[in-house]
């Protein structure tokens, strides 16, 4: 409601109507704006035009430093901006009232005791008359809506009511902006924290795996060293028979052999094995290994070798290829506990299919798959079977180094190893190697 209906500028029904329209316009303009300076400027512009004053602005105040920071203000033609940091004390003593959250209304700076001393300074910034309306948050003035006019001017109660309304709306809008900024900041910081934690977790899992690996390696190696050390000790004792000495030397040389195979398998996994690739006839190679394995797996396991009809060559190290195939066949045979069907199958593949986490790869490959109808692999194990020393077999049964060799060999040869398995039904390991 209008506070009075006196005729004249800024009062009466006409004023009430223009003020109402100004508020509607402000509401519409600032609704979609989302940064404080822009929406404060929009409000200032409408307010300035409606009240026909020289300048309207919005600034944040620092009550301790007694300064106001203005990013942008609205100025009537010919009036200069106040943008920047201004010190209240240079323009009078009314900062005292602002600090008490009181609105300062000055009709003529020359007449008001708070500004009389600084009339020159105020006139120099086109503020012969002004309103400073503090914006209060949590009981403290945080910002200021100011209107300056280059001539002395009366401020009606209607105008003050309008200014107060605009100040309140600007405050709510800027609060909305800040809440949204805070939320964005919070979201960003949460995202960052999640990233940091994930990285920490990954790191600690990696460290755990490295710890297990080095532990197992040291353990296995120590066993071999123990054999060597005790054999040496016994050799040093006088009076042993030639035959006994020979047995001890045998034991040492066997331990050294096992040690070098251990490091060899680890080197394979690390893809540091010195490979000697050559064009290899897959059919011939698979047949030879398959026949040898048939004798190994025992009569309960039916070994089927499904070779390619045409002759095809791969480019790989023959020794390592043989070791990989033997490792796969041995695992398949272990999984069937002496009874089942083992199929070795050779096909051409014009690419490697994608699996969990690994993308598909284009190219000409030979796929050698070893499948069994054995125990299958539990889902929680399948992620780890290629890790060196990962084994589900009892001590003496498994070293956990078979699949890590296969994995390292496949990768180092420009191929891949893929596995499909169903618990209780069986597994299929497919070795992809590039065609020669
Ligand atoms: N064909 C298979 N069927 C079921 N499980 C298998 C098969 N091949 C490998 N695994 C699992 O992967 C583990 C790791 O295999 P590997 O690296 O060859 O080590 P090891 O045979 O010495 O245990 C095995 O202990 C077993 O749990
Ligand atoms: Mg094995």
Automatic annotation (TrEMBL):
Question: What EC number is given for this enzyme?
Answer: 2.7.13.3
Keywords on record: ATP-binding, Nucleotide-binding, Phosphoprotein
Q: Which domain of life is it from?
A: Bacteria
Per its record, the protein catalyses: ATP + protein L-histidine = ADP + protein N-phospho-L-histidine
Q: Name one Pfam family in it.
A: HisKA
UniProt KW Lipid biosynthesis keyword: no
Locate the Histidine kinase domain: which residues? 216-436
> GO: which molecular function terms?
ATP binding
**PANTHER family (UniProt xref):** HISTIDINE KINASE (PTHR43065:SF49), SENSOR HISTIDINE KINASE (PTHR43065)
Protein name according to UniProt: histidine kinase
Which species? Pseudomonas violetae
